[in-house]
Amino acid sequence: MTIDLKSPFGALLLALTIIAFCYLLLPILVIVVAPLGSTGYLSFPPQSLTLKWYQAALNDTRYVGSFLTSLKVATITAIVSTVIGILAAHGLTRYEFRGRKFIEALFLSPLILPTLVLAVGLSIFFSRTGLLTGTARLAASHVIVCTPYVIRVSLPVFQRFDRTLEEAAQNLGATPLQSFLMVLLPVVRPAIIAGAVMAFITSFDEVVLALFLAEPSAPTLPVTIYSAVQLGFDPSVAAVSGLLVLLTMALMVIYHIFGAVRD
Amino acid sequence: MTAARPVLDAPGTDGAAASSPRLIPYVPVLLFAPCFIIYAVLFIWPQLSLLATSFVDGNQWSVAHYQRFLGDGYYWELLGRTLFLGVITTVITLVLGLPVAYLLARMQSRWAGFLLVITTFPLLVSAVVRSFGWMVLFFRDGLVSKLVVALGLASPPFQLMYTMSGVVIALAQVLLPLMVLTLYGVFRSIDRDLELAAMSLGARPSLALWLVTLRLARGGILAGSLLVFSLAISTFATPSLVGGARAHVMSTAIYEQTIELLNWPFAAALSSILLVFVLVLALVYGRVLEGRGQTEARP
């Protein structure tokens, strides 16, 4: 550390940092802890502790159903955007051609587009063309939001990949397809996994496209929570949100342990 | 892919000549095709039809929706409030993000990685859930609203729900991790020896930071600010849940025009106006990053 944290200036930096961490974690802590209260309304800190709201959330078919819808949409989205994103990233780094920069910018551009604007455009588009139905509409829309993440994560890794490895494989008799599958893919695997995980989480958490495009009879979990929150503060909604936080936390721990072991 | 070049069937051929990849133009085209087709149908086409819809009134081309926006003080106020939200949110995330990112980047303990993960974690939790957490704290009996009253900043029947202050507090928390991550990357790329050199020449730590580190980081600071600003003026979930109808911004107004009022052409015009702001910011952002790349490339 170049700055002495015991000096007045260092203490100021440290104080701001501690405030920032409390600020970042406060609403997440609230959403996990508040449904532990036994009162019929949400309060923080909770009065007396009970697990009944968490139990109620797990037994509510509305929440379980929309959780499964979200899982389905996020899985389809993650698979499709990972496949097309990896192919595009490979094409962008493997070949030199005119307009390469333009194609790259186009493929990344949904990152800067507000999701709401995208959702309005897609709603107009789907209602005019009648293309796709049901959950497929939402998954297809999520692919546009998630593919740029896959490309952005994998581009630098593909660029760093040592091309002579592929050439060596082909000299030993591998077809280009074989060298792609057996040499390139294993090397860039961490990037593929990271891209797929990001695509999955982005789709699972996304609420705006889902509000516009999910089937009213089969909303995703964020939409169910969004609607329930606006109707009033049922502690079981908070319990569902709390479960979602705990699940994300568990997945993140698994991902980091898994990643650490592999490295 | 397989069509690109024949299998090497003669192991005796000259390695370099045989293995250099032949650039056959249709191979990259085949690799892009799936992505490009999906983008053309689900991204370019819908955005063009959004733009077209904003210029349609009844059955003919018209700029009526834009005239309505420009001629109505309510919408100017809406736009002003949205940009103001963007500015305040950016300032808060900068004030908190700079110290956090700096300390994380300069920390030499194993805690640094853990703290970085803690910083990113809120990004993985849906904005709906995070906003919900703030709502519990913002209602009349909520902890934060009570705190504001106890500090004497407001008189008793007070709540932060449905106010712009509430939206600012919640939105800055939602976007803070992005600011920290951007600044963290920038501070990591600045050699700490430069700070030490300034201090050994007699600069106080605060002055060394000001003269050396912040100067060098200003491109990254601008990039992080543009990112947060552009998300703050366009994001929907947090303003909608915390602000509701009493603290409208552009995004919630667009949503109201579509789902509630079914005035899709006007919603399309509002969306296009918002899009112009975001695109201009993105262009500036691109220029900033480019400029940074060039200065870093210099020896």
From TrEMBL, chain A:
Gene3D superfamilies: MetI-like. One of its GO terms (cellular component) is plasma membrane. Keywords: Cell inner membrane, Cell membrane, Membrane, Transmembrane, Transmembrane helix, Transport. It comes from Chelatococcus asaccharovorans. The keyword Lipid metabolism does not apply. InterPro entries: MetI-like, MetI-like_sf. GO terms for biological process: transmembrane transport. It is a multi-pass membrane protein. PANTHER family: INNER MEMBRANE ABC TRANSPORTER PERMEASE PROTEIN YDCV. SUPFAM superfamilies: MetI-like. CDD domains: TM_PBP2 (cd06261). This is Putative spermidine/putrescine transport system permease protein. It comes from the Bacteria. Belongs to the binding-protein-dependent transport system permease family. The keyword Aminoacyl-tRNA synthetase does not apply. The chain crosses the membrane at residues 12-36, 73-93, 105-126, 138-158, 179-201, 236-258. It is found in: Cell inner membrane; Cell membrane.
From TrEMBL, chain B:
It holds the Pfam family BPD_transp_1. It comes from Chelatococcus asaccharovorans. Its main location: membrane. Keywords: Cell membrane, Membrane, Transmembrane, Transmembrane helix, Transport. One of its GO terms (cellular component) is plasma membrane. This is Putative spermidine/putrescine transport system permease protein. PROSITE patterns: ABC_TM1 (PS50928). Belongs to the binding-protein-dependent transport system permease family. CysTW subfamily. It is found in: Cell membrane. PANTHER family: ABC TRANSPORTER PERMEASE PROTEIN, INNER MEMBRANE ABC TRANSPORTER PERMEASE PROTEIN YDCU-RELATED-RELATED. It is a multi-pass membrane protein. It comes from the Bacteria. GO terms for biological process: transmembrane transport. The chain crosses the membrane at residues 23-45, 83-105, 112-139, 159-187, 207-233, 264-285.
